Amino acid sequence: MNTTYTQFNSQLRFIALNLLSLCVLLVCASHSCFAQKFKRSELPTLLSTPWEVTYGPDNFLWATESGGTVSRIHAVTGEKQIVFTASDFFPGSPKEQSTLCIKPKIAFGTLGLALHPNFLDEATSFIYYLYSYNSGSVDTPATRFKIKRLTWDAASSTVTSDSDIVLSITTGYDHVGGRMMIIHQESIPYIFLTIGDNGISDKNYPTCYEPQSTNPNNFTQDPTTQNGKIHRFNLDGTIPATNPLAGNSFYTRGHRNPQGLIYNPTHNLIYTIEHGDRSDDEINILHKGMNYGWKNVRGYHADNNYPGEAEFVNNYKPDPRIPGDSLVEPFYSFCASPSQDTSSDGANWCSIAPSDGIYYGSPGIPEWTNSLLIVTLKDGVTTNPELYQVKLLPDGSYAPSSSQNPNPNRFFGSDQALNGRLRDIAVSPDGRTIYLVNNYGGDRDKITVYTYDTSAIGVDEPGVREEFSVYPNPANEYSQVEYILASPAVVSISISNLFGQEVKVLEEGLQAAGRHVRNIETSGLASGVYVLHLKTKSKLIGYQKLIILE
């Protein structure tokens, strides 16, 4: 009888906590109240033109920097380790510079990075990244990009070997794309790589090619060229047998400058984030083999906001080599109206210059759950380098916008002078810490941190910084909890089942201020889903789902 009564009380406490959280959210539902929940800070890390930042399963940030460099950064202290610098990195040559129009230099750099899905497994602890090299000679240079694979040894925190897996990736005078991602499709992991159209805008600079028909941006829909495509590779760099065309790495085509890739695991969707030409920046959902229309189609098909667009859409002839070939309309197009200012003054353009994004499926920031978070570069009359939240409906479709609930919603634009041009975004495992990297703008290249501050609405106790992390998760025999105390506090860490019944107390007592890492023995728990709670003086600071595997 006592056991039943205790279980009933535990369930009531669990339900009460959730009801309290719900009530707090209802009280603070407005955007202005929500915006006050973030605390801004900066990591002290010194960076050089960062392009990618990824939150790794080892609880570190992984970044690419100039000169073919890969860095590993502690997500709390900002301590940086340069783990690899490519000896063959090549910054282009003056011999490759165009003699026409503005005399552009060949595009080069250190761009996308992705970690193997089983990165914590010693056998597959691989880092993949993209950088430029010289595929020619000193006398006849030919800048290209390559994907290199690094083997990481976690025990010694060193790269033990490296190998080139994809060579001769095209470049040009502009629009190189360069984002990478590794995801599973039908249980098989693939590398996805974006390549831009490689061409200078003929609208901005009509004399950069003689004749203009040689501009690479004319060939983005041609499946036999690399540019203007999303490509898919096996993890060893070979071409999957299930790609649209045999022996061809292209996955989709007709893209302008796709600098972002997002995977939505809830709905198994891949999105690209793409720069438009003065207007019509796009979010696209990728469908294998399909044509996204650049440069004949810009934005939505029905708006006819580009000369000849309607005729091209209405008379499109599918490529007979590609089963089911068709034009695909954007999932969302920014500033799609044909009345937008596309004059020569770029500050007036409504284009936001989106760079990269991430799918936010965490409950950590409830207002953001089931959203795309996209960072932008442009400082214009009506645009700021900031974060855009694109809210989705439960089925993955676009949530309608209203004056009370605008979609997209915008964040951190008032900090643009501090933050600079936002190049990439990463999110902590608990969903409460947002990491933004900039290159150029602001006072330096850096990592800006926005922490979701639930204490702003009165549910947390001062003294404990609310974000914390649990890794590895799922766990087999053990996991770890990492958190920071701003001041000494009595802290308890416990694990409960989904009925709110406490099954294990991991730590209880007075702890000093600073960083703490606690090991969790999970071997005695049955396989299943649990909730790990971090509390101080019996008040909930935060919680995370913990999956136990036998």
Quick gist of this model?
This protein is mainly β. 7% of the residues lie in helices and 38% in strands. The chain has a domain at 461-548: Macroglobulin (MG2) domain (Immunoglobulin-like, Sandwich).
Structure description:
By secondary structure, this protein is mainly beta. The protein has helices at residues 2-27, 31-35, 309-314, 416-419; strands spanning 38-42, 52-55, 60-65, 69-74, 80-85, 110-115, 126-134, 143-153, 158-169, 180-185, 188-195, 229-233, 250-253, 257-264, 269-275, 281-285, 332-334, 354-360, 371-376, 387-391, 409-411, 422-427, 433-438, 447-452, 464-471, 478-485, 489-496, 502-511, 514-521, 528-536, 539-548. The chain contains 4 helices and 31 strands. Helices cover 7% and strands 38% of the residues. It has a 4-stranded antiparallel β-sheet, with no helix packed on it. The radius of gyration is 25 Å and the shape is globular.
Describe the secondary-structure layout.
Blueprint: H1 2-27, H2 31-35, E1 38-42, E2 52-55, E3 60-65, E4 69-74, E5 80-85, E6 110-115, E7 126-134, E8 143-153, E9 158-169, E10 180-185, E11 188-195, E12 229-233, E13 250-253, E14 257-264, E15 269-275, E16 281-285, H3 309-314, E17 332-334, E18 354-360, E19 371-376, E20 387-391, E21 409-411, H4 416-419, E22 422-427, E23 433-438, E24 447-452, E25 464-471, E26 478-485, E27 489-496, E28 502-511, E29 514-521, E30 528-536, E31 539-548
Antiparallel strand pairs: 1-24, 2-3, 3-4, 4-5, 6-7, 7-8, 8-9, 10-11, 11-12, 12-13, 14-15, 15-16, 16-17, 18-19, 19-20, 20-21, 22-23, 23-24, 25-26, 26-29, 27-28, 27-30, 30-31
